Amino acid sequence: MSVTCLSEPAPAKLNLALHVTGRRTDGYHLLDSLVCFTSLGDELRLSPGPLSLSIDGPFGDGLAVDDDNLCLRAARLAGADIGICLTKNLPVASGIGGGSADAAAVLRGLERLGHALPADLQQLGADVPVCLASVPARMQGIGERIVPLPALPPLHLVLVNPGVALSTPQVFAALEQRENPALPEIPDFAAAEALIRWLRGTRNDLEAPARHLAPVIGEVLAALNAMGAGFARMSGSGATCFGIFDTAPRAAESAETLQRHGWWAMATELAQPPVPG
Ligand SMILES: C[C@](O)(CO)[C@H](O)COP(=O)(O)OP(=O)(O)OC[C@H]1O[C@@H](n2ccc(N)nc2=O)[C@H](O)[C@@H]1O
Ligand SMILES: Nc1ncnc2c1ncn2[C@@H]1O[C@H](COP(=O)(O)OP(=O)(O)OP(=O)(O)O)[C@@H](O)[C@H]1O
Catalysed reaction per UniProt (predicted)? Predict the structure, then answer.
């Protein structure tokens, strides 16, 4: 029997804009979000079964290898016996979709090995459908309505996490205004400047409740602006924030400076679209 091992990247998810537009009767919130993915992310390797998980990487110690791990839940949902190695490069519970990205990467890998995708992906997490696509997209509903967008212009990004884990349900619970306007129409952006102009007319509605729970987020945003970011905002339910810089060297230099605060700060770019086949 041939032994097949494969690797699958799990890019970090960024909510460039995130509007909360309502709430369903089951308590889930309706969202309207411009989502993109970065070349920085976790890494998954799949090898023939039985079902198992090992975790390494800079944030591996913060994540228990238990049955609830989203990698194992994804494999069980797909009915697959598979050995999974996860290199955890992204901080846990940090608003950049680490768990959802990992689950989606396991499902993408299993699909390459001939497994069918499970029907109800959202039982793994609201962000799993958009992470499965891992391309720039408008995300609506509670995360199930995904409209892929034309490629975004190149962005020189810095991601900063101050080391405070935020619980997504707690951030949603602390939201004061649940019915906000939808995103303005999303044009085809010719350059980063046009995207930044558009972003200035949008919000992350979860930023205020997250800052209430973790005031250090305000310090992170101020530090990104002080470093010369053309735009800075929190992603998802926080606490990770992103800054958009003019050039890759300025992003790299800013990340290095921000690390001196004791924060996780990484320069990155938008993920390249997956190569078909
Ligand atoms: C805030 C976002 O990061 C934006 O991309 C996501 O919507 C969160 O996605 P996620 O972490 O995959 O979220 P889940 O694990 O499905 O949900 C965690 C909890 O967040 C709240 N939740 C999540 C998504 C959503 N549309 N409305 C919600 O109210 C619910 O209390 C839910 O129990
Ligand atoms: N493989 C995984 N990676 C990260 N978290 C996981 C994983 N499996 C289970 N979890 C659990 O999921 C919870 C959310 O973690 P995650 O890193 O996905 O949050 P997040 O970045 O805030 O996600 P989102 O941006 O989708 O809200 C954590 O409490 C963690 O214990």
Answer: 4-CDP-2-C-methyl-D-erythritol + ATP = 4-CDP-2-C-methyl-D-erythritol 2-phosphate + ADP + H(+)
Substitution candidate for ligand 2 out of 43, 65, 69, 92 with most atoms within 8 A of CB: 92
Residues 6+ apart with CB under 8 A from 33: 15, 16, 17, 18, 19, 138, 139, 140, 183
Rounded to a whole number of angstroms, the CA Rg of the chain reads 18
What total number of domains does the chain contain? 1
Ligand 2 site residues (CB inside 6 A) read 63, 68-71, 92-100, 102, 127, 168, 236-237
pTM for this prediction: 0.96
Q: Per residue in 93-141, pLDDT tens?
A: 999 988 999 999 999 999 999 999 999 999 999 999 999 999 999 999 9
* Centre of ligand 2 from the C-alpha of residue 82, in Å: 21
Q: Structural domain of residue 139, as residue ranges?
A: 6-269
Longest CA pairwise span in the chain (Å): 58
ipTM over the 0.85 cut-off: yes
Residue 30 sits in a domain whose CATH number is 3.30.230.10
Q: Is residue 274 part of a domain?
A: no
- Is 277 marked as binding a ligand? no
